[in-house]
Amino acid sequence: YTVAADTTFTIGTDGTVAYSGTTRTTDGALLLEDSLTKVAISKKSTANGTELPGAELSLTGNADWEKILTQFAENDEHKVAGITDTTTGALIGIKWISTNEELSVEGLTTEEEYILQEDGAPLGYAYSENIRFKLEGQGTNTQVYVYNKDSGNFEESSKVEMFDDLDTGTLVLTKTIDGLNVTDEELAGGLKFTIQNEEDNYLAADGSIQREVIELTLSQFTRQSDGTYILTIENVPSGTYLITEVNTAIEGYQLQSTSIVSGTGVVQYQQTTNVLLTDKYEKKITETSKTDKHDKKITGSSKTDTENSSGKKTTSTLNTGDAMSAEILRLFTLLLLSGTGILLSARRLRKE
Fold first, then answer.
1. Which helix (H) or strand (E) covers residue 278, if one does?
2. What are the phi and psi torsion angles at 78 (to 5°)?
3. Which of these, 105, 117, 113, lies nearest to 136 by C-alpha position?
4. What residues pair up with 177 in beta bridges, in sequence order?
5. What's the half-sphere exposure (Cβ side, CA atoms, 13 Å) at 65?
6. What are the strands, taking DSSP E only, across 189-238?
7. What is the dihedral of CA 52, 57, 61, 64, to 10 degrees?
8. Are 267 and 169 in contact (CB under 8 A)?
9. Dihedral in degrees, nearest 10, Cα atoms 187, 168, 147, 113
10. Contact at 8 Å (CB) between 343 and 326?
11. What is the biggest distance separating any 2 CA atoms in the chain, rounded to whole angstroms?
């Protein structure tokens, strides 16, 4: 109960009583009335400042909890219930589920400290810290004092408000590309990425989660002075994400096996998670070919300049193919046989 307000009264010479305050006269008596303390407890979202339904809350401290429970009907939408000490079986507080309306609690004891605790946060929200508060009362008014950890004092408030932040963090993707000068076409879609959570849903660049496939392109990244590309996604719901480069094909280039085209990032509340992907390209080597007089394909000798991931040019020489070697051997054999035949004919003529 609150402390009754002071009452000032005077008695006139005719026996009448004039008074002020919360008292009333019945049959000439002065009555001092104590009012039940009353406090409003609100659960809100920091995103929009409105009441946040679905949070599991509990309130503990020294009070007549059995009497307090009687003010809540069985069909109360907050589903208020008592908290029992597991050892003694005594009531030590109440618990409820937040709705679109704040909860009003009457009958808490003044000058006692109470603790409001969140036992279960709504989906997508982070748990709030406990709130300590106490009440003072004068007449029909109840003053609420909430503990401020920054100042170390209990400060007056109109109600007890607990706020939940969205359970989100920041995901930063860094893309490094070696051996390739990125063109506008490649920025627009030549290199594509997907980001999926554990439920196989897709993360968009604005931090929202979608069921349909979302492909991010390199054009959504910001190019840095060192040549790397960075995409920062804020307000990402906490969880584990798989980042995959779904298209790495660039005409005229081949991707080296040392490239990193996928990675996993664990996003946590108010934390920044970094994931690095690296593409290492080199130009494809081309061969020149020609045919002999029998239309057999032979490989000629050619030189091709290539550029590796370090930017160094190298020269590759392609040796004469096996088809040409075989042809030379065949011609040599024919000449050798022809020479042998001429020599035998000459010997026969001498004998004759």
1. strand 272-283
2. -80, -10
3. 113
4. 279
5. 19
6. 192-196, 202-203, 209-210, 216-217, 222-223, 229-237
7. 90
8. yes
9. 180
10. no
11. 185
Residue with tokens 């008592």: 82
Q: Is the pLDDT of residue 27 over 90?
A: no
Give the span between the Cα atoms of 99 and 77, in whole angstroms. Answer: 7
Closest to 135 (Cα-Cα) out of 161, 114, 152: 114
Q: Give the residue from 304, 295, 294, 297 showing the smallest Cα distance to 322.
A: 297
Q: How many CB atoms lie within 10 A of CB 2?
A: 21
Average pLDDT over residues 192-196: 95
> CA-CA-CA-CA torsion for 62, 67, 73, 79, nearest 10 degrees?
20
Sign of the alpha-carbon torsion through 242, 235, 276, 188: positive
| Residue type at 183 in one-letter notation | T
Residue 212: HSE in the Cβ half-sphere, 13 Å Cα cutoff:
0
> For position 299, what pLDDT does the model report?
47
Structure tokens at 295: 């239309």
Find all residues with CB under 8 Å of 165, minimum gap 6, and list them: 46, 125, 126, 128, 269, 270
Amino acid of residue 181: N
Q: What value does the mean pLDDT take over residues 192-215?
A: 95
Q: Contact 302/316 with Cβ under 8 angstroms?
A: no
* Residue tagged 């979202």 (tokens): 45
Whole-structure pTM value: 0.63
Arithmetic mean of pLDDT over the chain: 82
- Rounded to a whole number of angstroms, the distance between the first and last alpha carbons of the chain is 152
pLDDT of 340 higher than 80: no
Measured distance CA(59)–CA(72) in Å, rounded: 15
DSSP letter (8 states) at residue 218: G
Residue type, 151: S
